[in-house]
């Protein structure tokens, strides 16, 4: 898979390193000469250019990319890169970094964004996830379909502890995608039982998040009465 990353700062280089380790082809683009540090990610291609300019993106052969990641520290730049990647080059998947949470509402399909990653939101979500059990934590927002990746750690007193996945009447427009149990990552089947302390990852419509949280957090004594 060919991936172009606009922004060769710490975030862009870190993403590039991960993708290269997984066998992908990576191009890093940045207009600042000081950001071009080939020795830091020597396996990547590098391009000194302004990713907001069509001529630069032509040189980057963006039409050959499977994914474009707008990872600069400037939300305006990330939006422009996303829009150009989607509308001018038909890139199948565009991922954009949101630096200021106040701008998150802009990062949607209208601007060519398939997945918006808010670094401040993600960091705060990870803090919340570390200290809260039974509370729904939003980790990632998907533009298409107004869906989010959300996490909830099943509390000890949950009525669903010990229940098989296939026996749960999940809210509409939600999907349980992963169960993290200790060091194990499980792809849930209908016969798997939920256990207290499980970290459950869902893709859920935003309108269903409260309903999902209520379902997972309901106490055993509440159902008994």
TrEMBL record:
<keyword id="KW-0630">Potassium</keyword>
<keyword id="KW-0633">Potassium transport</keyword>
<feature type="domain" description="RCK N-terminal">
    <location>
        <begin position="1"/>
        <end position="117"/>
    </location>
</feature>
<dbReference type="InterPro" id="IPR006036">
    <property type="entry name" value="K_uptake_TrkA"/>
</dbReference>
<keyword id="KW-0406">Ion transport</keyword>
<dbReference type="InterPro" id="IPR036721">
    <property type="entry name" value="RCK_C_sf"/>
</dbReference>
<dbReference type="Pfam" id="PF02254">
    <property type="entry name" value="TrkA_N"/>
</dbReference>
<dbReference type="InterPro" id="IPR003148">
    <property type="entry name" value="RCK_N"/>
</dbReference>
<dbReference type="InterPro" id="IPR050721">
    <property type="entry name" value="Trk_Ktr_HKT_K-transport"/>
</dbReference>
<dbReference type="InterPro" id="IPR036291">
    <property type="entry name" value="NAD(P)-bd_dom_sf"/>
</dbReference>
<keyword id="KW-0813">Transport</keyword>
<keyword id="KW-0520">NAD</keyword>
<dbReference type="GO" id="GO:0015079">
    <property type="term" value="F:potassium ion transmembrane transporter activity"/>
</dbReference>
<protein>
    <recommendedName>
        <fullName>Trk system potassium uptake protein TrkA</fullName>
    </recommendedName>
</protein>
<dbReference type="Pfam" id="PF02080">
    <property type="entry name" value="TrkA_C"/>
</dbReference>
<dbReference type="GO" id="GO:0005886">
    <property type="term" value="C:plasma membrane"/>
</dbReference>
<dbReference type="InterPro" id="IPR006037">
    <property type="entry name" value="RCK_C"/>
</dbReference>
<feature type="domain" description="RCK C-terminal">
    <location>
        <begin position="137"/>
        <end position="218"/>
    </location>
</feature>
């Amino acid at each position: 898979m060919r991936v172009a990353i606009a922004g060769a700062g710490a975030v862009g280089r870190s993403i590039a390193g991960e993708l290269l380790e997984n066998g992908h082809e990576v191009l890093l683009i940045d207009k600042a000469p000081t950001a071009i540090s080939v020795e830091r990610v020597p396996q990547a291609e590098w391009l000194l250019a302004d990713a907001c300019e069509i001529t630069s993106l032509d040189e980057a052969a963006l039409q050959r990319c499977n994914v474009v990641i707008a990872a600069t520290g400037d939300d305006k730049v990330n939006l422009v890169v996303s829009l150009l990647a989607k509308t001018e080059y038909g890139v199948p998947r565009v991922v954009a970094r949101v630096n200021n949470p106040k701008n998150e509402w802009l990062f949607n399909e209208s601007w060519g964004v398939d997945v918006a990653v808010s670094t401040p939101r993600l960091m705060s979500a990870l803090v919340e996830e570390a200290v809260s059990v039974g509370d729904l934590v939003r980790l990632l927002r998907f533009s298409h379909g107004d869906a989010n990746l959300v996490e909830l750690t099943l509390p000890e007193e949950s009525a669903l502890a010990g229940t098989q996945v296939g026996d749960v009447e999940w809210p509409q427009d939600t999907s349980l995608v992963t169960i993290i149990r200790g060091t194990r990552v499980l792809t849930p089947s209908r016969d798997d039982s939920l256990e207290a302390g499980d970290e459950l990852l869902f893709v859920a419509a935003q309108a269903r998040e409260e309903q999902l949280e209520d379902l997972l957090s309901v106490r055993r004594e509440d159902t008994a009465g």
